[in-house]
Amino acid sequence: MSGEYRFGNIPDHYFLVPPRLVPKNGVEFAKRGFAKIARYDVGLVIDGVGFLRASLEKLSRELGTSDYIKFLGEVLRERLLPLMKRSEAVIVPSVPANGVIEATSLGVLEAMAMGVPVIASAIGGIKEIIVNDSTGFLTPPGEPAAILRAMMAALARDDSARVAVAQNALRRVRDRFGSEAWIRTIQSTYYDITGKPPANIDTLSFPQ
Fold first, then answer.
1. Can you give the CATH number for the domain in which 68 is found?
2. pTM to 2 decimals?
3. Which of 14, 103, 110, 153 meets the CB 3.0–4.6 Å disulfide criterion with 43?
C-alpha cells in the first residue's frame, strides 16, 4: 500500500482486530490480508498487548502498511465496545498454535450482539457461532487471501445486506448464547443430574 493517507486519530473507516498479540490469535494473517486491500480510505486498528507487537510492527513496515495500521495497546472494555460498534467489521483471525485451538471468542459474540459483521477463522468453537455469509464471514485459518476476500465483501455490502447480517447475528446470539439459552442449559443439566424439575423459566425476567 502507498499513498498520502496518514493516521492521526482512528480513521472513519476501519477494521478492528481485538485479540492479544500472541501466536494463536493470528494477527499476522489479518495484516497480510489487509496489505492487499488497495484502498487508502480504510485502516486496520489492532487492540491488545503481547510479545509479538515488535515483530508485527516490523511486518507492517515490510508490507508498506505502517501508515494504515494503528496499534492501540491495551484498551479498556468500555472504550473497546464503541470502537467495535463503529468498525466496518471485527476480525478474529485465530490459528492453531502450540497445540491450542480457540475454544470460543468473546470478541465474536460481542460484535455480533452489537450488529457488527465478523470475519473469523473457521476453527474451534468459532465455527459453531458463525453461519458463513449469514451471521458473519468464516475463513480458513492462516489464509490472508481469504481474509482479504471477506474484507472486500464486508466493504461492498449495501445497507440492506449489512442490516440482514446484523439481524441474523443478533438473533443467533440471543437464541444460542443469551441469558435465556444459558439458563435453559443449566436447568436441563440440573434435571439430568437430580431428576427434579427446575424452576419455570417463564416466571423469570431477563434484561433486554
1. 3.40.50.2000
2. 0.81
3. 14
